[in-house]
Design brief:
Length: 565
């Protein structure tokens, strides 16, 4: 029997002052309006060089006249703590010479983030004394309930079918510790705050405010603040504020992993393996706007002199982003593998995987569904769904010669082949057609879509966008999330090593490594929308945050040396 346990307290000092320096837009519209008015309502004649847009923007800047201005004010700094602990027990039992069973259980406690400062708040309707905001340590004991039911069983078995064949199977339940980023730095696409530290309440409320008269023709005058005090921004229907919340029934997620594998030895150095691997996740962290603007309905905001969406039941607020634990994910795969070890100086491991991954949201923060009242409508292929993957690593130790052993010995040639299908993408509408102002409306498909019909190049369209149109204004698109796939990925890497032994314990290794040897263009998914272009404009490495030297980027070589002792 084996027993174990751990107690851990995590501390995070968060100080993300996003948008604290303000944003000021000088786009030339104010100069154009003045010139038009002085010309009797006739717009000025454009110059032939086509540079008026730059001139007028510069004129707006020099005059200190903005077309839009915004800033986030208040104190968003927070110190938070998370307490977690677990206990586990397990055993391994050799039931027979052929059958071995491993089994155990683990208990996890994953406490909610907290502190003693009463400076983190969530939205709770009915709290009129605090504008609907409940502060942890004051109106509520914790941001979400403490959860005490995380019992996680594990079981695995190994059965020797014969002297060359082994059957293995396993199942495990795994509790998750919620990531703190979605609570404190969510970065949504709408006007709600980043997290529980950014709400407009408490001694230092955080407000995202725009210029006093809505930004239009606001003049910057030295010594005169362009933004009023936060006291001038109560959260009322005529001046709504965005807020952030956590569902009062939020709970940590869990994941179930299961697999069955059959391994067969063909020869002393050759092993085949075939298996099924799957997982299922529930109560995944997700984000909803529980005050989503009603589709297609707008109302005039007289105080701000602008048109804004007509929001849902809480009129004193605009967007109310709420963390939920309603997400699901499923993964199923067939995996085949062959391993050859030191067969005439040659070794390889080759794997083929046929798989499918689905969920409602893949991003761990900042991703809202198309329609927050229909979260399951976003269930589809995961952002990382890859149906077919082939990876092969090969290594050959060059025998060398006995006559010039120091020069010809110790050479090793390695190759890595990687081929897999492209990443999925969604065809979006041309803008906010639904009127919810969330910025992620999908298109409607009206004909079969040709994918890859113009080939792979930076000047070619990857998908025929004439097969799509915008939904009817005030409604949502019907194209499924991530229903189309980008070009496939192909990469060949090659390396050459030279190992030179110095004495019995020291080895000098010189190496030359070449990545994307064939210099293949591996394109990222296009940004496809109705009326736009679906050209392949980015590479997969840059798309995933590793430009130049990331996987699949342009051919590059590195030289290195190692001292191994």
């Amino acid at each position: 029997m084996r027993f174990g346990g751990e107690y851990r307290q995590a501390q995070l000092d968060e100080f993300y002052h996003r948008h604290a320096t303000g944003s000021f837009t000088f786009d030339g519209t104010q100069t154009t309006a003045v010139a038009t008015a002085r010309n009797g309502g006739v717009a000025p004649t454009p110059n032939a060089d086509g540079l008026d847009g730059y001139r007028y923007s510069l004129a707006d800047f020099l005059a200190g006249t903005t077309s839009a201005a915004s800033i986030t004010i208040g104190d968003p700094e927070r110190q938070v703590f998370v307490n977690t602990w677990f206990l586990n027990a397990g055993d391994s039992w050799q039931l027979s010479p052929k059958l071995n069973v491993n089994y155990g259980i683990r208990y996890d406690y994953e406490g909610p983030l907290h502190n003693s400062y009463k400076d983190m708040s969530v939205f709770r309707p009915g709290l009129t004394s605090t504008n609907g905001l409940a502060f942890q340590g004051s109106e509520i004991a914790s941001l979400y309930p403490k959860y005490y039911k995380n019992f996680s069983p594990r079981v695995g078995l190994s059965y020797a079918v014969d002297s060359n064949t082994v059957l293995r199977a396993g199942y495990g339940w795994y509790a998750d510790t919620p990531n703190l980023n979605p609570f404190l730095d969510n970065r949504p696409g709408n006007a709600a705050p980043n997290g529980v530290e950014g709400n407009p309440g408490g001694p230092n409320p955080v407000y995202s405010v725009s210029a006093a008269n809505g930004g239009s023709n606001t003049t910057i005058v030295q010594g005169v603040p362009i933004f009023p005090s936060s006291v001038g921004y109560p959260c009322v229907a005529t001046s709504p504020c965005g807020v952030f919340s956590v569902n009062p029934n939020f709970r940590p997620s869990y994941n179930e992993n299961y697999n069955v594998n059959l391994e067969h030895t063909l020869a002393p150095s050759v092993i085949l393996q075939l298996g099924y691997v799957g997982s299922s996740a529930r109560h995944l962290l997700s984000l909803l706007d529980i005050n989503q603007a009603l589709p297609g309905i707008y109302s005039a905001d007289i105080q701000r002199q602008q048109t804004r969406p007509f929001f849902g039941p809480y009129q004193q607020y605009g967007n109310i982003n709420q963390l939920e634990s309603i997400g699901t994910a499923n993964y199923n795969s067939l995996q085949a593998q062959i391993r050859i070890t030191n067969w005439h100086h040659f070794s390889t491991q080759t794997i083929y995987t046929w798989s499918h991954a689905l969920d409602e949201v893949t991003a761990y923060r900042g991703a809202l569904p198309q329609d927050s009242t229909n979260f399951k409508g976003d269930y589809g292929n995961s952002d990382f769904d890859t149906r077919n993957t082939f990876v092969s690593f090969m290594s050959y130790d060059v025998p060398g010669s006995q006559h010039l052993k120091g020069l010809t010995g110790g050479w090793q040639v390695n190759g890595l082949l990687t081929f897999h299908g492209g990443q999925p993408f969604t065809v979006h509408a041309s803008g906010d057609i639904s009127g919810t102002n969330e910025g992620n409306d999908r298109a409607v498909q009206i004909a079969p879509a040709r994918v890859g019909y113009q080939g792979q190049s930076t000047t070619a369209n990857w998908i025929d966008l004439s097969a799509f149109e915008n939904p009817t204004p005030g409604t949502f698109g019907t194209v499924r999330r991530n229903s189309f796939y980008a070009p496939g990925y192909s990469d060949v890497d090659l390396s050459v090593f030279k190992n030179t032994k110095i004495g019995e314990r020291l080895t000098i290794q010189l190496r030359a490594e070449m990545f994307n040897l064939l210099n293949r263009n591996n394109f990222a998914p296009p940004s496809a929308s109705v009326g736009g272009s679906s050209q392949l404009s980015d590479t997969i490495g840059d798309y995933n945050g590793a430009p130049g030297i990331g996987a699949g980027e342009a051919f590059n070589t590195q030289f290195g040396g190692k001292i191994i002792f």
